[in-house]
Amino acid sequence: MTDWLDRRSTPLLLGLFAGLLAVAAGLLVGGDDTARAGLAARWTARTALPLFLVAFLAGTLARRWPGGTTRALLRRRRQWGLGFALAHTIHLAALSINVLVYAPGRTWQSLIGGGLAYAMLYLMALTSTDGWQRRLGKWWPRLHRFGLYYLWFVFTVSYAGRAFGDDPGKRVVGLIFGTILIAALALRLWPRRRQAVVAITG
Ligand code: HEM
C-alpha cells in the first residue's frame, strides 16, 4: 500500500479516474441532457474533493501521525495537488458545458469566485516544480499556502450554500461535506495553536 501511495503516478491516475468516473456516472444516471450535465458538474466537484483534502492535509497528517503512509503522502504532496488539478479540470469541462449550453445566463460577477480559484489552481500547478520553487524563493510557500486556503474557502462556501439552501437533498450533501471541510481546517490549524501554546508556556 505504501509503495503504491509513494508512486508519482498514483495521485494523477486517481485524479483522472475520479473525474472520468463522475462524468460517466452523471451521464448514466441523468434523465435528460440537462440533468446529465448538472450531475456531471456536481459529481466531478465531489470526487475531486478527496484529492484536494490529501494535498491540504498531507503535512498535518505526517506531523500528527508519523508513519510510512503519512510520510508517503507528504513526499508526494505536489503530485496530490496535480491530481486534484487534473480532477478539477474535468469539473471545469463539465461546468463549461453547463454554463454555455444548458444553464446560460450567469452574470460575470457570479463567475468571479470560481474563476479566481481556477486561476490560483493553474498558477500553483505551473509553479509546482523545483525550478519555480527556487525562483520564487519565500514567495513560493506564500503562494501555495494562500492558494490552498482559497480553494478550501471556495469548496466550503459552495457546500455552505447547499447546507443552508432550499433543496433538502442538497442540504444533506452540503452539511456532510461542509462538516468534513471545517474538520479538515480544524485539524490543519490545531497543531499550530498547540505549538504556539508550547512556545509561549515552554
Ligand atoms: C467559475 C467557476 C465555476 C463554475 C461556473 C462552477 C459551476 C458549477 C456547477 C454548474 C455545479 C453543479 C451545480 C448543481 O447541479 O448543483 C457546481 C458544483 C460544485 N462546484 Fe463548481 N463551479 C466553478 C468552480 C468551482 C471551484 C473552483 C470549486 C472548488 C474549489 C467548485 C466547487 C463546487 C462544489 C463543491 C460543487 C457541489 C458538488 C456537490 O454537490 O457535491 N466549483 N459547480
Overall description:
With 202 residues, the protein is an all-alpha fold. It has one domain. 87% of the residues lie in helices and 0% in strands. The chain has nine helices and no strands. The protein is globular and about 45 Å long. Bound molecules: protoporphyrin IX containing FE.
Question: Which key terms come to mind for this protein?
Answer:
0% strand, binds protoporphyrin IX containing FE, mainly alpha, 9 helices
Concise description?
The chain has 202 residues and is an all-alpha fold.
* Tally of strands: 0
Low-confidence stretches: none
Strand content: under 5%
Q: Which outline best applies?
A: globular
Counting DSSP H or I runs of 4 or more residues, the number of helices is 9
Summarize model confidence as the mean pLDDT.
93
Order of helices and strands: HHHHHHHHH
What is the straight-line distance between the termini? 39 Å
The main sheet comes to:
none
Percent helix range: over 70%
Could you say which structural class the secondary elements and strand pairing correspond to? mainly alpha
Number of domains: 1
> Which value, in Å, is the CA radius of gyration?
18 Å
Bound molecules: protoporphyrin IX containing FE
Q: How are the secondary structure elements laid out?
A:
Elements: H1 2-5, H2 9-29, H3 33-64, H4 68-75, H5 77-102, H6 108-126, H7 130-136, H8 139-163, H9 168-201
Helix pairs in contact: 2-3, 2-5, 3-4, 3-5, 3-8, 3-9, 5-6, 6-8, 8-9
Bound molecules: protoporphyrin IX containing FE.
Protoporphyrin IX containing FE (HEM) binds next to helix 3, helix 5, helix 6, helix 8 and helix 9.
